[in-house]
């Protein structure tokens, strides 16, 4: 899947060394957001970088203009950058590869990219632990009313310890249902199991026994929902999963259940979840992702029983470095004519 013109200036030594920076004419990369220092330094060393100077979110038009103006060979984008069929159609022919600084690829029309012969790579694996950690953080924060506790202390409303103050829920012996048992779902299950939770999961296909780690498989989500004292969304956003957690499915959850979402906001019908959080049918929620980010449904801001994070699943220094370096690894492989291990289209 490598364009012929790249092969002209890739020497055997460069291929063997994987040393893109040694090429006479470095490939140019439009980098849509500011990258961590180590990532930026390696990009600068090995590529002609077209940066986004003030780190604002590019519109589709800005992204297309940047690619055209630079006659870019590659784009390093993020989960927030629009890369639908129209944007892909408007990219200059010079663009041969796109790496997204994310595991989720719902912002990219992979079929359109493939049809144009553009190789797309993402960053799986390197962010699994960080995302599973934040799922656990949200689970604990929702169950133990972390937002209310924090507010009580900060505002001075805390007048002292009482046996009945700010009572949350135990995790031990509770059933946790995980919708989507990919890498992150499995890493979260492992953590939750260590907290004494009983893991159930619904996935396209059943995992092998070892990967299951004792979790109970449900083919049918409707059958799993009534068991879920805790319910977590770990599935990708697709046309099929959009609005997945709607009023009907929420009604199937047990009274007082706790909902966690670290996947994509589009999987939740916000009106339905907010109504359930108000009625108490859902006792609490921990949410890291939202439909229409950053303009989230204002109803969430009013609710004390929802713990909110700004799409920070992979936001650790170590993980963000690894994600950026994985994008560069994908470019290095592509421009050296090697297979791109993280290719998704
Ligand atoms: C972030 O949301 C990602 O998909 O990596």
What does this structure look like?
By secondary structure, the protein is α/β, with parallel strands linked by helices. The chain has 2 domains: 12-124 and 317-335, Rossmann fold; 128-308, 3-Layer(aba) Sandwich (Rossmann fold). The chain has helices at 4-8, 12-17, 37-46, 60-70, 85-90, 110-115, 128-143, 146-155, 183-194, 209-212, 221-224, 247-252, 270-279, 298-302, 317-335; strands at residues 28-31, 48-50, 74-77, 97-100, 119-121, 175-179, 198-202, 216-218, 230-233, 257-261, 282-287, 306-308. The chain has a 7-stranded parallel sheet with strand order 8-7-6-9-10-11-12. The chain has a 5-stranded parallel sheet with strand order 2-1-3-4-5, with helices on both faces. Strand 6 (175-179), helix 9 (183-194) and strand 7 (198-202) form a beta-alpha-beta unit. Helix 7 crosses helix 9. The longest helix is centred in the last third of the chain and has 19 residues, at 317-335. The chain is elongated, with a radius of gyration of 22 Å. The N and C termini lie close together (10 Å). 41% of the residues are buried. Bound molecules: glyoxylic acid (GLV).
Spatial arrangement of strands, main beta sheet: 8-7-6-9-10-11-12
Termini separation (Å)? 10 Å
The molecules bound to the chains, other than polymers, are: glyoxylic acid
Number of helices: 15
Task: Provide mean pLDDT, rounded.
Answer: 94
Helix content: 25-40%
**Class by SSE composition:** alpha/beta
CATH fold category name of the largest domain:
Rossmann fold
| Largest sheet composition | 7 strands, parallel
């Amino acid at each position: 899947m490598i364009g012929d013109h790249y092969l002209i200036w890739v020497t055997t030594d460069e291929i063997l060394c994987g040393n893109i920076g040694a090429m006479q004419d470095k490939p140019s990369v439009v980098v849509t957001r500011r990258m961590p220092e180590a990532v930026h330094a390696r990009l600068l060393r090995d590529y002609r970088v077209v940066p986004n100077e003030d780190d604002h979110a590019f519109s589709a038009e800005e992204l297309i203009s940047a690619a055209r103006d630079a006659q870019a060979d590659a784009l390093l984008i993020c989960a927030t950058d629009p890369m639908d069929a129209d944007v892909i159609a408007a990219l200059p022919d010079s663009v041969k590869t796109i790496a997204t600084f994310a595991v989720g690829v719902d912002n990219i029309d992979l079929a359109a990219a493939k049809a144009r012969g553009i190789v797309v790579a993402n960053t799986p694996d390197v962010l699994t632990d960080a995302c599973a950690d934040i799922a656990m953080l949200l689970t604990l924060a929702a169950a133990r009313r972390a937002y209310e506790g924090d507010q009580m202390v900060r505002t001075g409303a805390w007048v002292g310890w009482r046996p009945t103050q700010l009572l949350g829920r135990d995790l031990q012996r509770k059933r946790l249902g995980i919708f989507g048992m990919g890498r992150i779902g499995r890493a979260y299950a492992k953590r939750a199991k260590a907290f004494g939770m009983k893991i159930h999961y619904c996935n396209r296909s059943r995992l092998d026994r070892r990967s299951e780690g004792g979790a109970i498989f449900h083919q049918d989500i409707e059958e799993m929902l009534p068991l879920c004292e805790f319910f977590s969304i770990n599935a990708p956003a697709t046309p099929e999963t959009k609005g997945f957690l709607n009023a009907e499915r929420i009604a199937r959850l047990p009274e007082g259940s706790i909902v966690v979402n670290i996947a994509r906001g589009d999987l939740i019908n916000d009106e339905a979840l907010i109504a359930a959080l108000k009625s108490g049918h859902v006792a609490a929620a921990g949410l890291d992702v939202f439909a229409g980010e950053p303009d989230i449904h204002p109803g969430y801001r009013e609710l004390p029983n929802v713990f909110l994070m700004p799409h920070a699943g992979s936001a650790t220094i170590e993980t963000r470095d690894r994600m950026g370096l994985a994008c560069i690894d994908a470019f290095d492989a592509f421009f050296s004519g090697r297979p791109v291990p993280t290719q998704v289209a």
